[in-house]
Amino acid sequence: MDFNVLLTDLPTLIGVIIGVPAVLAAYIVGGEYLVRRLPDKARPSVRPWIWVGPALALVTAFLVLPAVGTISTSLQDRKGNFVGLKNFATQLDGFPTGGAWIAIRDNVFWLVFYTLFVLAFGLILAVIFDRVPYEKIVKSLIFMPMAISSVALVVIWKFMYAYQPPGQAQTGTLNFLLNTVFHQDPRTWVQDTTPLLGLIPLNNLALIAAAVWGIVGFSMVILSAALKGIPGDLLEAARVDGAGEITIFRRVIFPLMMPTIVVVGTTLVIFALKAFDVVYAMTNGNYETDVLANRMYKLLYNSNDFPGASAVAVILLLTVIPVLIFNLRQFRAVEARR
Amino acid sequence: MTRGSTVSSHSKGDLRVHQLWFKRSLILSLAAVLTAVACGTSSTPSAGSVNVMATWTGAEQASFFAVMKPFTDQTGITINYEASRDQDALLTTRVAAGNPPDLAAAPSPALLTSFAKAGKIKALNTVVDMTALQSQYAKSWIDLGEPLADGKLYQVYSWVSLKGLIWYNPKNFQAKGYSIPNSWDNLLALQDTIKSSGTTPWCIGLESGAASGWPGSDWVKEIVLSQSGPTVYDNWWQGKQKWTSPEIKLAWQTWGQILGSGDSNVYGGAKNMSATNFGDAGTPMFQNPPKCYMHNQASFITSFFQSANASLVAGNDYNFFSLPDITAQYAGAHVVAGDAWSMFNDTPQAQKMLQYLMTADAQAIWVKRGGKISPNNQVPLTDYPDALSKSTAQILVATKIAKYDAGDQMPSDMRNAYWSAVLSFAQNQGNLNSILANLDAVQAKAYTS
Hints:
Chain A is an all-alpha fold. Chain A contains 14 helices and two strands. Chain A has two domains: 72 residues; 250 residues, MetI-like (MetI-like fold), CATH 1.10.3720.10. A two-stranded antiparallel ribbon of chain A has the order 1-2. The model of chain A has no long low-confidence stretch (mean pLDDT 89). Chain B has two domains: 177 residues, Periplasmic binding protein-like II (D-Maltodextrin-Binding Protein, domain 2, 3-Layer(aba) Sandwich); 210 residues, Periplasmic binding protein-like II (D-Maltodextrin-Binding Protein, domain 2). The chains are: A mainly alpha, B alpha/beta.
């Protein structure tokens, strides 16, 4: 990194560091000054708007307006003429392999398997490590992949999935295990579309597994915090009543953690719908591993098809909104219970 | 301030507090405005600077900086350099936002051509010295720079590379008594001989992350040019020749002949081809015994050979011959590629930099550092650091029909569909008809935008 660029623009840097807080402070102070000029009764109704104002303005400028723009682009052709839902029809044409259907199918795989795996592993790890003395170390280790970028994660997993022809020394960890422990021929994990148990193509599962490894620490930490929030005397009472550990987990711990599990789960659903970086870096959607976000990216930058990309974006937005609403409600419910 | 004072808002003391707040806020906002003004006026270096975007990182970036150092020393103009492998996306965004770099060097001129169509880049006819360019550059390079064929030069080339080099290990060839094939038939005969000895003739790797498939697309375009000639080649990348046409289909079938039925001519077959990164693909040639004998790749691949196996010696352990001609009529046809420069902002600094980049002196700096060939005939062959790069340059100079990489001239989604098609074809050659029909469908849409 060339730090000279920073140094040559030192005045700008100082201006930003001092100027931005100064302008904000001036806004608050000035706003407060104006509010104080108002009659007593009007103040409580005006003051919140002054404080929320900047956030509202930013959200409108950078979220609401672009979203409206995207929706209107999705209803136009490339020259800007209104074409109704034609772009959506193009994307949803040719079921089951045409248009965006492969991407939609793979997004469903992500939705189901990514969410389930992350929740299940997160829960199991949280419960297991709650009972050991070296909990902190293990949890830190599992949390660590959260700190690396997705592209670095893909590089690591490419080594895990590396393939050499049968008979050669296997350089990939998984193929090495397959070869030496199970005495089977190596597999091309990232390219192989053979369905596993007739359910999900192997390569889709391989991509999801890499992403799960990167995020499982997140769900583990939150679920672990929820677990620790369960009062000890409750568990004690259950034990006194003669419940076994598994019964306690099923009938006491699990129900009490349910709200947190639901919140983490819905957050993961949103992550799954947004899945992009692992797919982009690992296969770029080749070998039937495309997802909607990657398809949108390709339409936008490779095809210069802004309306098509906007249509995919709107499809994504429409699927995310119900989850978002559910998630917000759940948040509120959890808060209310506190 | 206590809550009590807020309630008794009409007291005198409170008013004074208000005035104090007001003054403070005034001073703060004034300070902000002053610093903003200060920023606006302070950054004016004497000779100015050029914002440059290219794809060179690491060692290539160091070479580019070495090229630009004499320029900066002489003129005082500084270079603000930005590198990205995902240039299509970055440049498109920057241009759409009205914030393009002054100059960009793109390995794929199709993007620059689309900007030329949209009027986003400047014509260079008055910027570069056209007489010098015409005397120092082969006509095909200047023609490439005029993609709209309206007499306006939009792209200029600083460095180029030669595709369709077949790399081999001379020691392996000697041990088995194989000789370098001087015709297409001899190449096919050689691959049969190698196969009958129980090894696979070819090393091919198609994996390249988001660009997977391109190494195979090189094969197809080299075959199209050598087999059906420059007119078909040009019509093909321009979208006027269908993928299902006999010529293009024949090229794919010819590549299929190289791959062998069920990819049996390729080390590791279809699985290994799709799972092996293009940079690692040639390495099995250097194993003992060798797993394969030949590898088709552009000149840059030697650095991958070396990094996988540092003890290799250029010329002794690896060498190349150019892909034999297929049709006699088109003998000496080669696919080339290069770094195309375009100008987005017409500043005096950018003009000077572009003029500098077109000189033999500037280009020779990178040529001497290795890895690049200059299209400028004023760069002497003695500047090339080793025998291999020198002979590449010789082939390039002697090339009768030089055609730019077809894939890089296609619209991006055509090119990407082409790459994906290579992957599908390598998986199952039997699907050729449906693969080509699918490419025709993409072609029908890709050229309209």
